[in-house]
Amino acid sequence: MTDPNTPQGPPAGDVPPLGGWAGGPPPGSQLPSRPPVVGSARPPTELAPAWTPPNPDGPPKRPSNGALLAALAAVVAVILLAGGLAIVLSNGADEPRVNAQPESPTTSTPVASPTTTPGGLGEVIGEDPSPSTSPGPSTSAPATTTPADPDPDTEATVDDVISFIEETRGAEFTTRPDVQFQDDAAFEEGLLKDFDEQQEELEDEQVLFHALGMLPADVDLAETMKSALGLGVVGYYDPETEEMVVRGTSLTPYVRTVLAHELTHALDDQLFDLDRAELDDVTDETGYGFTVLTEGSASYVEQAYREQMSAADQARASTEELQAGSDPAIFDIPFVILALLTAPYSSGLELVDSIVDEGGGVDAIPDAFDEPPTTSEETMTPSKYLDHEGSVKVPTPSPDSGAEEVTSGVFGQIGFTALLSTGITLDDPAPGTEGW
After folding, report:
1. CA of 41: how far to CAs of 32, 34, 78, 85, in Å?
2. Residue 385: which pLDDT band, with cuts at 50, 70 and 90?
3. Residue 59's closest CA among 195, 227, 208?
4. Angle made by CA atoms 153, 125, 95, in degrees to the nearest 5
5. With bands split at pLDDT 50, 70 and 90, how would you rate the model's confidence at 9?
6. Residues 91-149: pLDDT tens digits?
7. Residue 68's pLDDT is what?
8. Are 31 and 346 in contact, with CB atoms under 8 Å apart?
9. Which of 21, 25, 207, 423 pairs with 56 at a CA distance of 20 to 30 A?
10. Is the dihedral of CA 178, 179, 183, 188 positive or negative?
11. Residue 357 to residues 296, 307, 384, Cα–Cα distance (Å)
12. What percentage of residues in the chain have a pLDDT greater than 70?
């Protein structure tokens, strides 16, 4: 696809994290992370930098977007069941309350976040829900509350989760992470505080999405990503600042699973260094592979933590997770964006499960962090990673005479899957994307 008005290749970048996404983060789910910088244009080389789903957040945050994953599942379920799904949430008060610690930067602008819908995320995390028929910007001033002293019950719960992680992974924290629990307004302010710095990069990404027909021409990618993060991210860890924030003011079963996920990111950061600036300049999809591995490691421990809960708490955690992703605004987000945001989490868990099962247990995880996947194909088909298949070098195309190069990058299997999934069923792209 080459003409003067069309970008000559996919953009460079890595997922974050939405938390997510990360080459290092997120979205988060958030895991926005650092490597590689999204949308950064580089001169043509033998191999262009890798393109992966857009990373909406500047800092290397490793987000947890379980709610976004649940929302994605909920969208499919609603379509299949024609609205026949009823969710009943018990809002009991048997969990220890948490002192909210909104240590977010002061700003003169209002917090832009969806208002809470009845029975939505606000209720899940222990806040009083404010009925609203549609999302909209908050008119309240930014949170500037002085952090409260840690609650003893909360600290004890954090210690219990830390002990579980150390036992599961067979490794110890070098220092005890400091966890902040924040309400909706403070959490979204902190999560999105650097979002505007990515506006130019997201505009370049938008050109690609529009040119390939992955997004309708009237959809603004930046606003869509901001909405998705606000709806789906429930926790994040920033390897650069070692800041860990969990969205919630009550230690419900679901919030505890989020805590296990984010604390695992902190452990991996202490052991393997998640803030890898060298991934800014890689010429393959290692940045994305590192993101998937990072999220998979945290998801592996999170799943183990959930499985050791009582049956009642497991049921409550699942219900809370679905409820957290039940905001009607989720239907305003294109499915392809939801799929790209959640890919590092679903692929990551399968990848780490395979590494543990085939590589000799959790002791194989450190080796994976030493040599993360170099292609998105290896993350989507773990056997290819275990067989060290690697990537195949291809020549970099040259723009047509007079054409402006907006950005460039390697378009791997994750990109082709997203492209071919647009407008067709989820399983159909597989034959056309295998091997990329």
Report:
1. 19, 16, 40, 45
2. very high
3. 195
4. 35
5. very low
6. 334 444 444 433 333 322 222 223 222 223 333 333 333 322 223 333 333 343 334 45
7. 54
8. no
9. 423
10. positive
11. 14, 17, 15
12. 63
Please name the residues in contact with 339: beta carbons below 8 A apart, sequence gap of 6 or more: 72, 418, 421
Read off the pLDDT of residues 255-286 as tens digits, 9 standing for 90 and up: 999 999 999 999 999 999 999 988 877 878 99
Cα dihedral sign, 52-53-58-61: negative
pLDDT tens by residue, 336-373: 888 888 889 989 999 999 999 998 899 999 999 999 99
Please give the Cα distance from 10 to 34 (Å, whole number).
19
Instruction: Give pLDDT, residue 428.
Output: 52
Which pair of tokens denotes residue 329?
């605004």
Residues 167 and 160: their CA atoms lie apart, in Å, by 11
C-alpha 376/C-alpha 357 separation (Å) is 20
Question: What does the alpha-carbon distance between residue 293 and residue 351 come to, in Å, rounded to a whole number?
Answer: 7
Instruction: Count other Cβ atoms within 10 Å, centred on residue 218.
Output: 6
With H, G, I as helix, E, B as strand and everything else as coil, classify residue 245.
strand
Environment class of 166 (CB within 10 Å of its CB; exposed 0-12, middle 13-18, buried 19+)? middle
Looking from the CA of 248 toward its CB, the CA atoms found within 13 Å total: 28
Q: Is 266 within 8 Å of 244 (Cβ atoms)?
A: yes
Q: If you ran DSSP here, which 8-state letter would residue 141 be given?
A: P
Q: Is the pLDDT of residue 197 over 80?
A: yes
366 CB neighbour count, 10 Å cutoff: 13
| DSSP at 262 | H
Give the residue from 421, 36, 38 showing the smallest Cα distance to 225: 38
The answer to whether 190 and 142 have CB atoms below 8 angstroms apart is no
In the numeric block, which tokens belong to residue 161? 């989760």
Reported pTM: 0.70
Residue with tokens 């239907």: 331
Backbone angles phi, psi at 80, to 5 degrees: -75, -35
CB 292 within 8 A of CB 344: yes
* Longest CA–CA separation in the chain, Å: 68
Expressed in angstroms, the distance from the first to the final Cα of the chain is: 18
